[in-house]
Design brief:
The protein has about 300 residues and is an alpha+beta fold. The chain is built from four helices and 17 strands. It has a domain at about 70-220: Glucose Permease (Domain IIA) (Distorted Sandwich). Strand 3 and strand 4 form a beta hairpin. The radius of gyration is 55 Å and the shape is elongated. It starts with a helix and ends in a 22-residue tail after the last strand.
Length: about 300
């Protein structure tokens, strides 16, 4: 074997060794890489999800249609004089009180009781300053004895329920700060406001029109804290006439009936008693004269 053959043989041997070593190294590197890899993901059956859309809030029930609703013109205040027959101290007999009186401090705002249109703003000796508002079905409300009407409240102006229209006062024939409030039908007949206030009416047949016209029984005697100047003379005259009538009744002579006069004459000695036969009233009584054996006649004293 020549030197060149030996050299080729040695190089071939070294190449085989390098190849074996390279393959081994590659296998080892692949094994290490495989060992460091995570566990393979096993495909699973996809999970079905149900997506529920967000629930919309339930719609509020629509408000029922309202033909007319009456609110209190002075919320929270007390009715001190109701609808019906009423007698004031200076009156000889009862008469219709066509609305209700609501007590309140002077200057408190008066509110429109229902939606409507102002038809009158005026002043007179009875109602004082007042506002009249027309509503559905020809109904009207009236607000009287007002201390002031607000500047924007004029005839023809539309107002909503709860709109301030004026201030409480004591104008006209009034006995103190209060509101006189009326409700009238389309024929201008007064109705009992107590049947309408704080109520809503969807239809015209729900309105208590006939019941509102009914007059409560009896006459209510009103007691007032202040007598209007215009009524003081009437009060004085009425008081004087009552006093005179009571004195006349107390001082009027008691006229005895004829039977009583006859009994007096029969039981008493005519010479000892003076009797006014015309009036049947004995003027004096003197002890009767009778025999001790006789029974004492019945005692009849003259009236005081």
């Amino acid at each position: 074997m020549t030197d060149e053959s030996i050299a080729h043989s040695g190089r071939a041997h070294l190449w085989k060794v390098d190849a074996v070593l390279g393959v081994s190294a590659a296998l080892m590197a692949f094994t290490v890489a495989q060992a460091s890899l995570p566990e393979p993901l096993v495909p699973t059956r996809p999970i079905a999800y149900t997506i529920t859309p967000p629930q919309a809030a339930p719609a509020a029930a629509p408000e029922p249609a309202v033909l007319i609703a009456f609110a209190e013109p002075l919320p929270g205040q007390t009715i001190v004089s109701p609808f019906g027959r009423r007698q004031l101290p200076w009156e000889e007999q009862g008469r219709l009180h066509a609305g209700v009186d609501i007590a309140a401090a002077a200057g408190r705002p008066i509110l429109a009781s229902a939606d409507g249109v102002v038809v009158r703003v005026a002043q007179d000796g009875g109602y004082g300053r007042f506002v009249e508002i027309k509503h559905a079905e020809g109904l009207t409300t009236l607000y009287a004895h007002m201390g002031k009407v607000l500047p924007n409240i004029v005839s023809g102006v539309a107002v909503k329920a709860g709109t301030p229209i004026g201030l409480v006062g004591s104008t006209g024939s009034s006995t103190g700060a209060h509101l006189h409030f009326e409700i009238r039908d389309r024929q201008d007949r007064p109705m009992n406001p107590a049947l309408f206030l704080d109520r809503k009416f969807a239809r015209s047949d729900e309105l208590p029109l006939q019941a509102g016209l009914r007059m409560p029984r009896g006459v209510r005697v009103a007691y007032v804290s202040r007598i209007p100047t215009s009524k003081r003379e009437l009060m004085q005259a009425k008081t004087d006439s009552k006093v005179v009538a009571k004195l006349d009744a107390k001082l009027a002579p008691k006229v005895l009936p004829p039977s009583a006069v006859a009994a007096i004459e029969a039981s008493l000695n005519a010479s000892t008693v003076a009797v006014d036969v015309q009036s049947g009233r004995p003027h004096a009584r003197i002890a009767p004269v009778f025999s001790p054996k006789e029974a004492e006649p019945p005692r009849i004293d003259p009236p005081a």
